[in-house]
Design brief:
Layout lengths: L12 H16 L12 E6 L5 H12 L3 E6 L11 H8 L5 E5 L3 H10 L4 E3 L7 H15 L6 E5 L5 H12 L3 E5 L8 H14 L2 E5 L2 H5 L4 E4 L25 H4 L7 E4 L11 H4 L6 H24 L2
Parallel strand pairs: 1-2, 1-3, 3-4, 5-6, 5-8, 6-7, 8-9
The protein binds phosphoric acid mono(formamide)ester and norvaline.
């Protein structure tokens, strides 16, 4: 069975820890891991725009000894409606792995269903699991571990980051609280799955509409844009309900004094986060952005070792 990484709970708690431990080794010895030397090519396909994901996968695949093949879907037949499964069948005879940023989760499930090589979710509307691996690595670097720490995510509870914090944070044994307007709550099925995972890891998950309660005593504060890619037409509607969930200097006073602040970026200062917070001493967003590189290198190495013994 080919192993894929389509959502955060595709890695068990033990496996997530293995990937993050490998990522820490890659931080310590950045150019000492070259499992793709051969070289193997990895396709990285974008249906949506990207800065961090594109750069970190391209650099990371090269650092592992492989060749990144970056594809803008709009310039491929996939973008003109060629069936996803046919694309998978063409790719899996030539590349070692497929990384894809797309819209609906069912699209990446179709790709994985037809691919004999690992498929990695580089963001869908529902999940952003590579980002959460980088975020957990950042928490480990700044806090020493993840288990038992309280992570408060504020903003759009129904988006990809919220869902991935719930699943990935629960897998890491964290106490995850999502604070959002009631009309932007997490998908109940994702929340239920996160509750189940937390039951096994000693973590916990919860949703609230009370931003101050979520932040109270938190070790990690996280937020994201209120207008995700594909929601641009709703931008004017997606402001007023979210204002109480902005990560402001005032709200930060309720967190632990040594709390760290995460944002997957791109950030909108003065909207979901104050400039004084994201550019302030508690922000670790640049470490977080760099950690996309290390976490994804570890993930690719881990997946390929399981699929090909490489
Ligand atoms: N955080 C993140 O995925 O950034 P990009 O959209 O720039 O890839
Ligand atoms: N929720 C955001 C994340 C961007 C990295 C989006 O999907 O646009």
């Amino acid at each position: 069975m080919t192993r894929h990484f389509l959502r955060d709970d595709d890695l068990s708690p033990v496996e997530q820890d293995e990937v993050l431990t490998l990522a820490e080794q890659m931080v310590a010895d950045r150019f000492g891991h070259r499992p793709l030397t051969g070289p193997q090519t990895v396709a990285v396909i974008f249906d949506k725009t990207s800065t961090r994901t594109r750069i970190s996968f391209a650099v990371g695949i090269a650092e592992l000894g492989g060749v990144p093949l970056i594809i803008d879907a709009q310039t491929s037949q996939l973008g003109r409606g060629e069936p996803i499964a046919d694309t998978a069948r063409v790719l899996d005879r030539q590349v070692g792995a497929i990384v894809w940023r797309t819209s609906g989760q069912t699209r990446i499930e179709q790709m994985a269903g037809a691919s004999r090589v690992p498929v990695i979710n580089a963001l869908t509307d529902e999940f952003h699991p590579c980002q959460i691996l980088a975020d957990l690595l950042t928490v480990r670097q700044h806090k020493g571990s993840t288990a038992g720490l309280k992570l408060a995510y504020l903003g759009d509870g129904a988006n990809n980051m919220s869902h991935s914090y719930l699943l990935g944070g629960a897998t890491a044994g964290m106490q995850v609280v999502v604070a959002s307007p009631a009309e932007y709550q997490p998908d109940p099925a994702v929340l239920a799955k996160a509750v189940e995972i937390a039951g096994a890891t000693g973590g916990s998950v919860a949703w609230t509409d009370d931003a101050a309660a979520a932040v109270a005593g938190a070790d990690v504060i996280a937020t994201d844009t209120w207008v995700s890619m594909g929601q641009e037409a709703e931008a004017s509607l997606r402001e007023a309900p979210f204002v109480p969930y902005a990560v402001t200097e005032q709200l930060m006073t309720k967190a632990k004094p040594d709390a760290i602040v995460l944002h997957c970026l791109p950030a909108y200062r003065g909207k979901e986060i104050d400039a004084a917070v994201i550019d302030g001493p508690q922000s670790v967003v640049w470490d977080e952005a760099e950690n996309r590189l290390h976490a994804q290198k570890a993930l690719l190495s881990w997946l390929l070792a399981r699929n090909f013994g490489s």
